[in-house]
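Thread: 5'-O-[(L-methionyl)-sulphamoyl]adenosine complex, take 2
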Amino acid sequence: MNFIITTPLYYVNDKPHLGSVYTTIICDSIARYKRLRGEKVLFITGVDEHGLKIQRTALNNGVSPKEHCDEVSDIFKNNWLEWNISFNKFIRTTSQEHEKVVHEFYEKVKASNDIYMGEQKGWYCVGCEEFKDNPDNSPTHKCPIHKKNLEWKNETNLFFRLSKYQEAIEKLIQDPKFIEPKERRNEIIKFVSKGLKDFSISRTNLDWGIKVPDHLNHTFYVWFDALLGYVSAISSGDENHSLDLSIKSGWPANLHIIGKDILRFHAIYWPAMLISAGMKPPQKIVGHGFLTREGQKMGKSLGNVLDPKILLSKYGEESVRWYLLKDISLGSDGDFQDRRFVDIINNDLANTIGNLLNRTTSMSRKWFNNQTPSIGKKNNNEIIKLANNSIKNYLIYFDNYEIDKACNEILKLATNVNLYLNKKEPWSLIKDDTNINEVKLIIYNVLEATRIIGTLIKPLLPTLSNKILSQLGENDIDNKCWNERLRWGLLPELSNLPKPVPIINKLDYE
Ligand code: MSP
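Output below.
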């Protein structure tokens, strides 16, 4: 059985920003973790290409929506490749395959008698692609998220009978594991308790969308269309691609990772649509927080947007991943601060982990003929206990998607190993020949703990992990035997150690 994990399907109105990189890095580390633990993972990402927002963006750029989408979709896909994101499927909602699934799904919902024609009147935010129930009282009615004027719409649209699923959704969200974190779940419980209203799933006067088969002057509402991308992605690329094949091939998704702004769509509308079509709701939805920059919302008008491309070329993928995964607890808002970024990378990666590796491999090479020491009978000592304890905690945290805590567990181990080394002072002991066996044991223990650190860091910082392990003489570690690789004592004795090179360069303040 696949473990299906998804990022949101990103709007192609603009190129990727740090928010989309953040979500995708979280998913990537979880996907890598699950694979390393032996699960078969289907990691889905992609782009959401229809709707008024995209149509208008293309118009403003003087190109057709199709040309615009082709260009920006490519940018997204290439961007994920540059960031070393291990996605398995990249779905475009303008693909023929996706359109087929939307049509098949619509027929199922119609067969449940959940579609009807009605009047849609209200204030609409094009940025959110959503009607706002409670627009503010200012004369212009602004969207609280986009701070842009809402637009009044009055259309005859097709509606989905969401109200019919009030009880089903109430039951679903009672399960504390369905929506995390708790605060997000509470927001949804509160919203649902006010009573669910039917919502419109088609638009007239909007060409850029999938046509509703039995109402050709209507296109599907972009959210109705986009959410289905998670399903159509599953069997995309297969010659028998269809809704049923996607269901047979593993639906429901195990985990949707999304930002808190799009929780309602995922935790309410989406499960209800699926139940209506006779399908299972996703198993879990995790709503992460928002990234700010030096305490302020990131925005073009504020001139403080961090371009992920620049970050990537300046600092490399590992530094940005570590900062976002370790410094922000999944679910809380997080702030990107330049000084803090530099401090964290220098302290955690360059000093605590990098130096540990560097100085220990250097000592081992110097004293033991460029090799790991031979220690004969391996004894039980404090470092083994520390390592095993960190492994145990790390696995618990990762299984709960407490990724920041898993990162800290690695760091804790590295800090403790550094303390052990400083306490034992092998550089003093080596001066007396009679201490040689003790020195061998100390160095072996520290190298082995560093191997464990390099192994644990793999889902978080895959490139850095490979660098650490190859400095310890370990190359081509088979991903599948990762669980096995977390056992103490696997570092071979008397194995060659390559010449140490820094695994990460220290950063300077600008
Ligand atoms: N197209 C919809 C999703 C459809 S899923 C079937 C959409 N796209 S989006 O591109 O606007 O947003 C994608 C994700 O980026 C959302 O989860 C959103 O929360 C996230 N972020 C946008 N800005 C963000 C920050 N500043 N910080 C963190 N994440 C943010 O919504």
